[in-house]
Specification:
Blueprint lengths: L1 E10 L2 E11 L4 E5 L6 H8 L7 E6 L2 E2 L5 H8 L2 E4 L11 H13 L3 H14 L4 H4 L9 H13 L5 E5 L7 H18 L2 E5 L3 H7 L2 E6 L2 E6 L1 H5 L4 H8 L10
Parallel strand pairs: 3-8, 3-9, 6-7, 7-8
Antiparallel strand pairs: 1-2, 1-4, 4-5, 9-10
The structure holds adenosine-5'-triphosphate (ATP) and magnesium ion.
Length: about 250
């Protein structure tokens, strides 16, 4: 489905990705683990073309997206939903217009069809449409903003979903709702997902496969049992949260 092959990326003279190789399995959820600042968001920004690698290839459904023209990339992006780490709502638009935005923009949807789609997307993320459609982003709590962002992401019915810390800053109940929603989207719609999360328990609940990013490379990959029983000191330190081990904090 998605293949990273020897992807390198520098920002200035700092090489953040140092030869990333990663296979994302179709119809499954893959979690990328790694320390803060390690390059997880950088990896997924490459999939939607927000960043271009310095070298290496990224294939999505057999197409090397690093070679696409801006117009071809725009077509590809219709199939990819990206939930930004920051939520990234348009401050000047109310919830309805925020959620409706991709459909209006890409599909020219309007009228009753648009109303229906926005409302069902909001319901899917556990929001009551009547209570929220008129609100502006500054009138929402952090958790609501995340959910509105997710409603906007799923309204296009993407076949690939990229979640960058979808539950950070949410209470345990809202967080669980999002985790279940990720599962639901994957099971019911067969969506291929990549999840970045600092919450280990949530990750194991949502994910099928796990990849550990360390010093710019994917150093290990496998299922939950593989990770939980791994003898790799980096993985053991990451899962235990210990301050001692190969992962250094600056
Ligand atoms: N556009 C950019 N220009 C310059 N540096 C960048 C850019 N994007 C990311 N970086 C740097 O690359 C490194 C990796 O950033 P990235 O956001 O991918 O980390 P992350 O693993 O997602 O971290 P976190 O878990 O804190 O979100 C950071 O040091 C960051 O400052
Ligand atoms: Mg990040």
């Amino acid at each position: 489905m998605i293949y990273f092959k020897d992807v390198h990326k520098k920002f200035g003279d700092r090489e953040i990705l140092r030869g990333v190789n990663l296979h994302i399995v179709k119809g499954k959820t893959t979690v990328i683990f790694g320390v803060s600042g390690g390059g997880k968001s950088t990896i997924i920004k490459h999939i939607v073309g927000l960043l271009k690698p310095d070298s290496g290839t990224i294939e999505v459904d057999g197409v090397d997206i690093t070679k696409l023209s801006p117009k071809e990339m725009k077509e590809m992006r219709k199939r990819i939903g990206f939930l930004f780490q920051s939520g990234a709502l348009f401050d000047s638009m109310n919830v309805f217009d925020n959620v409706a935005f991709p459909l209006r923009e890409h599909m020219k949807t309007s009228g009753k069809q648009l109303q229906y789609s926005v409302r069902s997307s909001l319901e899917m993320v556990g929001l009551k449409p009547d209570e929220v459609v008129h609100l502006f982003p500054h009138e929402l709590s952090g958790g609501m903003r995340k959910r509105v962002g997710l409603a906007r992401t799923i309204i296009m019915k993407p076949s690939i979903l990229l979640y960058d810390e979808p539950t950070s800053g949410l209470d345990p109940v809202s967080s669980n709702l999002i985790t279940e929603l990720i599962r639901h989207l994957q099971n019911e719609l067969g969506v291929t997902s990549i999840l970045i999360s600092h919450d280990i328990n949530e990750s194991f609940k949502s994910g099928d496969y796990f990849a550990m990013l360390f010093e710019g490379k994917i150093i290990d990959y496998g299922n939950e049992l593989f990770f939980r029983t791994s003898k790799n000191p980096v993985i053991r330190q990451f899962l235990s949260g210990s301050s001692r081990g190969p992962i250094k904090f600056r």
